[in-house]
Structure formats: C-alpha cells, structure tokens
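Exercise 7. Given the encoded structure of a 750-residue chain, write a plausible sequence.
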C-alpha cells in the first residue's frame, strides 16, 4: 500500500467479501516485520469466495467502504473477468489455504519487488507448499562461490540462516517453517577478500501445514535408510510428506492431490479433485504443476508410468451380468429384477487396464476383464451385493493395483472384490495364472493357484527384483470365509514356483487394533526393512526389520471409519532432480566493451561444466552441447548418471584455435524430470598465458617455496587446476615426489 494516499484520522484496512454477504469484513493487521497488512478467516465451508480490500475510518463514519481496492479488470486476479465488479477470489475445499499478497488495486507484488535478474527460485511472491526449499540463482563471473542469506525482514536485521555455497543452488532442509514470510539475497565471494554487493532481494511465503504429527523411533536413526515418508489421504484428497520426527515438510496444498504411486525416480502419480475429470490420472511435480494428464475420468486407485515410458491406468467399463443367489435375492426381486443367478440383467462395473502413449496421449493397449473373467466369479461374503442394492450397479472387480514387470513383460492385476491376483502376458493378453480363493468360495477356484494363502480384499501388489510377489492382505474375509476368530491384515511376500504353487518368504500379521479393512500398502526397503501402511487405529505407518522388530511408527489421526491413508512410501528427499550447472573459468572479458565469458587458455584449452545433483535421488541427466556462434566445437548429446548429492564434470575440447569470441549453449535436464530443464548460453574466448613449468605460485621464480607448495598439495590436495599444470613437470598427470626431484634439479642448474 506504498502508493495509497491514506485518510486523516483513525482508519483500518479490511477485506470485505462474499463469505458474510459483503457485510463488515475481516480486519487486516499491519505486520511490522514484512510491511504488509494480513488477516485470517476461519470456519469457511468449501466453495468459491470473492473479496476486495477497503479502508474505513473517521473519514467515512466507519462505513466499511470508504476506499476500495479492486482487482484490475480482466487480469489474472480478476476472479470473474467478465463481470463489472473486479473482485479478487479463491476456491477452498476441506483444507486451509494461504492467498498471495496483492498490492492495492493490483495483482501480486511484482511492481513492489520485481523479479530479480539474478535470483531464479523461489519466484517473488510465490507461496510454497513445502518448507524444504531450493534457492537458485544465475552464475556470476570471477567469483569463488556465493553467500546466501535468508531473513524474515527486508532489512535483514534477523538472519534465519546464512550459508556459503560453491554452486548456484542451495537446498535448505533445516531452517524454514510453515505460514511464514521470507526474504533472501546472495552475493559472490572473491578470492582477494573483496566484498561484493548483495543482489536484489527475493520474497516468498510458505503455506499452511495440514498435519501436526509426532513419530516414535524405537531404534537408532542409523537403522533407517530413508528419512522421509509420503502418504496419500483418500477421504480428504490430499498428500503430505513428513520427516523422521513426523514434522510435515510438503503437502499438496490447494490442489487436492491424492497420491497413488511414487516411483524410484521420485515422480508423483495420482489424481486431483480440481478440474474433474481432466486431472483424474496425472503426474505432477513438487510445485503442484501437472506434468502429464490422461485427460479422462480414470479410476483413482492406480496410475503410473511403465518402463517403456508410456502411462498406464484403470478405466471404468461396464457390462451386464447376473444377480447371484443370496440373502439379498428378495430385495432385488422387489425392485423388479429376476435375480435368478443366471439372467444378465444387472450392471457389472470393472476396471480396464489402459496404456497411453506418453507423447500423444492415445490409448495404445488395453485389457478388459469383461473379456477374460467369468461373471460367475463374484464376491458373496464381503457385503458388496448389499452395497449394489443401493448403488443399482455392482462394483464387480474393484481392481485397485497393477504392476508391470519388464523382466518378463507381464502385468499383475489385483481384483479386490474377487480376492484374486492375475498374471497377464502383455504381448498375448492371455492369463498366465490366477491366485485366489478355493472353489468353495469362488466359481473358478479350481483354476486358482496358491489357494492356501487365504488372502482377501488385498491392496498394493508389486514384483520385487528377484521375482517375489509382495502385497498387503487386508483380510476382510478371515472370519466369514476362513473361520478365523477375527479379521487380520498382514504384509505378505510370496514366491510363485513353476506358475503352480507358492512359498511364503516373509509375512507380518498386524495386531487386531491395526486391522485395515479398506486400504493398505507395503514397501520393501533396500536395507531389508519393510514399511507398512494400514488404515487401522486412524491410520498407522510402521517400519520394521526383517525379524519383525518395530523400528519406527506414527499415527496419522485420520478416519474412514478408522483411517483413510491410501498408500505410503519412504523416500530420500523432496525435489528429485534439482541441479545446477557451473561453468569453470567464467570471467569478465576486458575488450572494447564489457563482456562475460568462459576463458580458454593454452594451459586449459577446454570448457568444463560441473553438474551438481542436489537431491536425494541418484538420477540420469541428459545434456546437449552446441556451438551457436562459431565452429570450434562439435555438437554433442549424451547422458550421465549422477549419484544423490553428488556432482560430475563434463569437458568439451575445441577442434581448432579460437581466434574470436564464440558462443556455446548447454542444455541439461534430468531424464525423469524434464520440467527442470536448463538452457544456458556462454561466450567463449581464448587467452594466451605466459608461464614457466615449476613456478607454482606464479611469482616468476622457481625456488623452495614452490617445493613446499607441492609437498602441501601431496598431503592436502590444495592446488587449483592451473597450479596442477605448472607442478606436473614430468607430464604423467600425477603430482608426486618425481615432480619435486625435477624442481630441485631446475633450482640447482639455474
């Protein structure tokens, strides 16, 4: 409100809106730390709301409408750009939201804090749905690294943290919190101790947390190899990531995203309640941006990328079938159905497996259970026909998981309401085997393998690297079918032998209070531990070792009727694939005009880039190198693998002498996170440097000081790239005692 002409006397700032039919609004209090007027409105129902800012006071007899700040007409913050009102607005659905700040009568804060040419991420005014934050900026010439500062004031009187960083990306995982405003800046550091000016100031906010949890660790933290947990909440359509203590560090914010799968590369798959049905099968990134969408109404249980790069999901398909005989028969007959167990008169709903081309979105493969399963196979014991009586269609297969095994080119399908798992040949579409209930409980039971496993209403099937089958057995039919005293959920790992029978490799039965009727998942970790998610006791996550000792657990505090945590996974970090590119010898060029460029010399006649992988994921990075002005370099495309929190150097050598300024371009992107692509251009020039081998400190003398520098380097690796060239007198690419002998010889002979 820096440009508002405030009235005389007493006054206040309000947000007047539709939540109370445009009566007296919510008072906005001045925040002395960030200089903004802020306020909160509680207990709003889900829906759409509009509002404006106003100033009221003595000057207008406190009417509430003395001065009004509207959204600019037809802009992106004009909630209904076609009307005459110019209102701001928002949509809320079952969770807290944080709105962006707006300058009086404008959209956002861009004209207050302009987006810096140096600071790249976070964007100015951005509201983050996470508190583990990557800070990124452009590379500046002539420096030896950077200092980053983050504060909660524009004056930087209070420093939240200050760090030195050699690259152009700092990933903070320790210092920020929810519902806060932050300011940040960077400055380059120089080897001559000269102090540089700070950059322009960047500004961002963090949104609201959605879970306030506390975990219990029963063993040392060293027994856990993955420090974070991501889980999807089915009923409230949201997803969160928590740390080892249970503190939330990421959530899906206002996007209403429910996770169904995260792969080993950190890609997120699931569905959103926003913009139905377009976002029913999507891949998103950690800023809630949709990376890929099937664009149709898919089943929300499973959607993921398969090894060939295409996407696969489940699509609803219906066909009539008979109403089986049972206690419900007379109730159906009263509705006018024959209900004789033979007449195909009632809608059977199933899930067709569908593969989508990753580029075109076209359906390129499908598998429809109506063409392969007998409709004499139905659930008779789990209460599904009583539900069908009210729904007027039968949720026949309720397929909730599939797994594509690229080693055998097979698909495994979990059909929950039929309590069976089916192995399907991807090439022929034929069923290889079906694992499920015995014949006394399922019509085709004589054709089932491994009926002794006694699983039912299962979730989250997967094939391990050695071919074992791992899944979550909900156990809904333990009492009614298998005559157990109580229903018991378990994680079970089995080995199918000769496509005929099964060997139980490992299983863990959850205690009665953790029975999960509706959902569940299990994950095998690289250290041999198992990570289990059950809806029991309001939603419970457990990590236990191979000997079934509980190492860690947490209660999610959900309901439905005892929990709605759909799936949960251990993960290594947020923001998989975040990276920076650093160009060595990037300097200021003192020619006729000021330029910046990469300096090549007769000592280092090559371009060197360092790619820093700042995430907890080991990933492949594609790169393209092009000469866009000049002809000294070849165009190169390649791929490099970079371990988590590591870096790699790549080199490019000219084919001929560079006698004028040239321009090169490098493009880098994580193979599995192409939205992070960086495309940077650099000038390149050549500088001839006079030097003498052995003059390590470049003081025009070869003496005992140079010997001492080499000795220190042998012990502590202190030389820079140029000094290594000067010190390698025998050109064997090693700095050792042989080079010292040669320097001594030079000193003695001179």
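Solution.
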């Amino acid at each position: 409100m820096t440009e508002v002409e405030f009235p005389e006397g007493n006054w206040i700032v309000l947000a007047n809106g539709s939540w109370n039919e445009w009566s007296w609004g919510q008072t906005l209090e001045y925040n002395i730390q960030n200089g903004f007027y802020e306020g909160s409105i509680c207990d709003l129902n889900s829906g759409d709301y509009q509002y404006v800012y106003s100033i009221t006071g003595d000057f207008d007899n406190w009417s509430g409408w003395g001065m009004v700040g509207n959204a600019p007409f037809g802009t992106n913050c004009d909630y209904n750009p076609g009307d005459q009102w110019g209102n701001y607005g928002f949509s809320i659905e079952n969770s807290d939201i944080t709105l962006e700040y707006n300058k009086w009568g404008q959209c956002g804060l861009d004209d207050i804090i302009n987006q810096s040419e140096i600071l790249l991420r976070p964007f100015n005014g951005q509201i983050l749905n996470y508190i583990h934050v990557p800070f990124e900026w452009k590379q500046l010439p002539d420096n030896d690294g950077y200092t980053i500062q983050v504060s909660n004031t524009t004056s930087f009187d209070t420093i939240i943290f200050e760090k030195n960083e050699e690259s152009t990306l700092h990933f903070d995982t320790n210092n920020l919190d929810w519902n806060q405003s932050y300011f940040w800046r960077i400055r380059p550091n120089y080897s001559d101790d000269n102090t540089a000016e700070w950059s322009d100031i960047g500004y961002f906010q963090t949104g609201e947390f959605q879970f306030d949890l506390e975990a219990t660790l029963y063993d040392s933290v060293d027994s856990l190899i993955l420090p974070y947990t991501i889980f999807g909440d089915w009923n409230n359509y949201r997803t969160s990531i928590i740390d080892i203590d249970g503190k939330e560090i990421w959530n899906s914010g206002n996007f209403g995203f429910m996770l169904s799968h995260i792969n080993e590369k950190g890609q997120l798959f699931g569905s959103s309640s926003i913009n139905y049905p377009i976002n029913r099968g999507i891949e998103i990134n950690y800023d809630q941006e949709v990376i890929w969408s099937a664009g149709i109404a898919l089943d929300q249980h499973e959607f993921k990328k398969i090894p060939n790069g295409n996407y696969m999901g489940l699509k609803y398909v219906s066909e009539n079938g008979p109403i089986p005989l049972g206690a419900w028969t007379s109730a159906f007959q009263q509705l006018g159905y024959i209900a004789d167990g033979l007449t195909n008169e009632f809608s059977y709903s199933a899930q067709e497996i569908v593969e989508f081309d990753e580029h075109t979105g076209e359906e390129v493969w499908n598998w429809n259970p109506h063409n392969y399963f007998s409709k004499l196979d139905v659930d008779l014991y789990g209460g599904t026909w009583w539900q069908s009586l009210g729904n007027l269609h039968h949720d026949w297969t309720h397929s909730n998981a599939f797994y594509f095994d690229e080693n055998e080119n097979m698909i495994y399908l979990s059909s929950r309401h039929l309590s069976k798992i089916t192995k399907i040949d991807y090439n022929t579409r034929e069923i290889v085997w079906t694992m499920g209930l015995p014949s006394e409980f399922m019509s085709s039971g004589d054709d089932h393998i491994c009926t002794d496993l006694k699983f039912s209403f299962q979730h989250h099937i997967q094939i391990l690297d050695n071919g074992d089958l791992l899944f979550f057995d909900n156990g809904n039919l333990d009492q009614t079918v298998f005559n157990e005293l109580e229903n018991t959920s378990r994680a079970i790992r089995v080995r199918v032998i000769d496509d005929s029978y099964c060997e139980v490799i490992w299983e863990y039965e959850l205690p009665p209070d953790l029975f999960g009727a509706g959902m569940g998942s299990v994950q095998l970790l690289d250290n041999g531990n198992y990570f289990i998610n059950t809806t029991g006791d309001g939603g419970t996550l457990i990590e236990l070792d191979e000997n079934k000792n509980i190492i860690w657990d947490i209660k999610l505090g959900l309901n439905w009727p005892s929990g709605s945590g759909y799936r949960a996974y251990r993960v290594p970090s947020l923001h998989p694939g975040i990276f920076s590119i650093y160009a060595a010898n990037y300097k200021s060029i003192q020619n006729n005009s000021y330029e910046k460029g990469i300096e090549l010399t007769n000592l280092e006649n090559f371009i060197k880039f360092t790619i820093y992988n700042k995430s907890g994921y080991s990933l492949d990075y594609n790169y393209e190198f092009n000469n866009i002005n000049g002809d000294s370099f070849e165009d190169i495309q390649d791929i490099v693998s970079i371990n988590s929190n590591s870096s790699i150097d790549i080199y490019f050598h000219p084919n001929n002498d560079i006698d004028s300024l040239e321009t090169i371009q490098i493009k880098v992107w994580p193979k599995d996170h192409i939205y992070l692509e960086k495309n940077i251009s650099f000038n390149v020039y050549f500088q001839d440097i006079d030097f003498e081998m052995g003059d390590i400190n470049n003081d025009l003398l070869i003496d005992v000081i140079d010997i001492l520098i080499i000795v220190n380097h042998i012990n502590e690796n202190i030389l820079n790239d140029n000094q290594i060239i000067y010190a390698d007198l025998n050109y064997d690419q090693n700095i050792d005692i042989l080079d010292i002998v040669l320097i001594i010889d030079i000193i003695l002979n001179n």
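Remark. The chain has five domains: 11-92, 119-206, 216-571, 579-687, 704-749. Students should compare their own answers with the one above.
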